Amino acid sequence: MARKNRNPVGKNVDPEAQKKKTRTLTLKSSDGQEFSISESAAVLSIAIENMVEDDCAGGVIPLPLVDGGTLARVITYLNKHAEDGASDEEKRKFDEEFVSGMEMGVLFDVVLAANYLDIRGLLREVRRRIADRMKNKSVEWVRKTFHIESDFTPEEEEQMKKEFAWAWEGVDSDVDD
Amino acid sequence: MSSEENPLPEDLIVEILSWLPPETLASFRSVSKSWCSTISDAKFVAKHQSHFGNSLENNSDRIVILTKRHADPRAPLKLRLFPDSNPGTLPEHNMELDLEKRGAAESCRIMGSCDGLFCLASSSCDYVGIQLCNPCVRWAARLPVHCFSNEFNPVDLYYGVGFDASVNDYKVLKLRRPVTSRMHMPGAAAVFSVKGQVLEKTQRPSST
Hints:
- Chain A is mainly α.
- Helix content of chain A is about 55%, strand content about 5%.
- Chain A has 10 helices and 3 strands.
- The longest helix of chain A is centred in the middle third of the chain and has 15 residues, at about 70-80.
- Chain A is elongated.
- By secondary structure, chain B is of the alpha+beta class.
- The longest helix of chain B is centred in the N-terminal third of the chain and has 10 residues, at about 40-50.
């Protein structure tokens, strides 16, 4: 009985879900590019879902913190994950390939967009990928990649290097992969 | 969205760092002062333990820790790390602990652990300080020496270590058990925080 109550439409297709698939939204990037996307794919972003629910998505949704190139990538991700009949295995493979070719700068842009748009799966995937690329990297590589200037004195730095000499064993050469 | 300054906000950086192996993290402490304090932060240590420590590929790399007693009682205490999956393959990084008092190493034991943090202390010498260490990232802190009494007689001491989320710090509880044959020594308790203080001290007569 309880089960029946939870799902009153039974085996019929939920009309609301069906509507979301056919309804399209327009997302507008910071540089003014417009992208069409089905509502069912767009609402995988919690931020967009909230905007749609609050009904402040009158036609075009402006995303002033995401540039066109990044938004196109994010939409590719959303479309795949909203695809009917895409198995978990297929999605996992897609995620792997989706991030594998990206340069660090692109990963940063995508992780920021995923954070801003609250797309949990994408955020997790890109975060993990960035961490993977940081493994065994030198301190200098990190400073360059994250635009950090050392605020240690040369003496302090020498002292730390001595203290953690073991941690520098097996550091890769600074190649951007 | 790319900018020359700080490409990522701090919370994202912290999140990413928490998925890195301890060796990488230890070397990244010298990136900058703010990275150093992030990586040394107690909340981060706990987060790192739950992320990196539990991620799939590291599942089998639980760490076994041993204290090594040296023939010379004044020799520093050493810790060794072994993964339980295949101990033979791990380079054995020793960690030397410089205990303050002479002979302290002799009576120091691992008294408890929390999030990969180990508490080393003495069960019988009141005047031996408590050491906390995280052998994964070669971090150690000496808590202030605190004695329940000025006597140098052996006592019966117990310890516990835990994380207090409300103040974002690890705390150590030190207990002295009342000794029945020595009624003048009441039971007592003291709480230490890693940030370096004896927080509270209570003494009770042994009769209660």
